[in-house]
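Suppose you are handed only these lines of text.
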Amino acid sequence: MTTCALPTPALPRLARLGDAMRRHRGWIVGAQWVVLLAYLFLVITPAVLPLPPSSAHLWDNLTLFAQFIFWGIWWPFVLVSMMLLGRVWCGVLCPEGFVSEQVSRIGLGRPVPRWLKWGGWPFVAFLGTTIYGQLVSVYQYPKAVLLVLGGSTVAAIAVGLVYGRNKRVWCRHLCPVNGVFGLLSRLAPIHFRTDRSAWDAHGGQRLIPINCAPLVDIRRMESAAECHMCGRCSGHRDAVSLVARMPGAEVAALDDRDADRWEVRLLVFGVIGTAIGAFQWSSSPWFVQAKLTLATWLIEHDAFALLGSDAPWWLLTHYPEANDVFTWLDGLLILAYIGAAALLIGGWITLWLRIAGRLLKQAGAHLRLAYALVPLGGAGVFLGLSALTVTLLAAEGYTLTSLPLIRGVLLAMATLASLVLGFIHVRRTPDGGPLRQCAAWLAFASAAAGAVMPWVTMFYLW
Ligand code: SF4
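From them, the structure of the protein bound to iron/sulfur cluster can be written out as follows.
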């Protein structure tokens, strides 16, 4: 895979920035300590405070403030940063990666076992946390935040204490958002690039080895997906530097050997399908209708077990003091709604991608084409998360009158980016002539429609 770098003079300035990150590592570590302490304070403290009264505001109540920081700003804009800056968040600010690496300095230092390297973990972890987060209302309640985010941090520490030395084994293999970040960072217009010929030409001179915490093979690094952009290897062997590239260039240049089945599953069934279901169920009239119908049927048949609301808060949302209690039926319906959305949307996209691949007469073309949907996947999760930002601001009296327009423009831009990337991939597969290429691109466009229409339905039709 080759990616097109932008011409100078952008290169030297960026390369100098990369080198400055290496030279001023102490500043980065200092920033990581500050973020870690702020993160721990905002995760732990609200969980031991009473729920905020209805008169509270985010500027005078720590719980509301923490809620706004985590879900209104942190998550949506970390996702955007992946598409604009690569995984700078992971390498420079992420408290979980930082703490996992720090404890691995004093841990057992065991080698990474095979089960931990299984390629399906990012898919399983993303689905698990996304769905569980909905069941316990992680966006609303601080105890759920402590359980989900805090639980993830405890797991990151435990993995750091057992596996690797000075490494981020957690981030590389198990972090629930590692796969999503890897996908989105492929679009970024900057990355650390290794010049293989410069590396090899450097010869056998003795050098201080680089500690790449997320275990990237720096010499063979071609993708931004796994690099945490920490800058530690900048300038190494006069071969590694921070450079600019066309946005989306890595996805456009992706070939069959770069396409990974688990990554494609994560994108199609997770980042697109599951995320849509998770963001959509609470505003879906279909969900309300199904719940009413089933509850009526259960009452008519004297079957009240599923209408009970005795589940603990760590299994299903249970806050009687806030008049917010899920019944077992609610829990089952949330699971069913998210599952159906993931299967229907993911199934639709897979079907059309396979048709496009068949038309192109190339095994594996459908996997490569799937990556062209990354802009739509990224825009979707940003729109879903930013809907919470909008809700939190609306509760404080700030309404964005041009919101439908902004959402429409973002969706249109992401759709256009996906269609252009799809077109580039179709053009790169000339077998069968222009008619087949045209039909394959239309099939790809049908797949893309599966990622766009649920958002249009949610934002403009309901
Ligand atoms: S390859 Fe490793 S050491 Fe180099 S910038 Fe990326 S994460 Fe840091």
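What can we learn from it? Strands lie at 190-194, 240-244, 318-319, 324-325. Residues 91, 192, 210, 212, 214, 216, 218, 221, 227-233 surround iron/sulfur cluster (CB under 6 Å).
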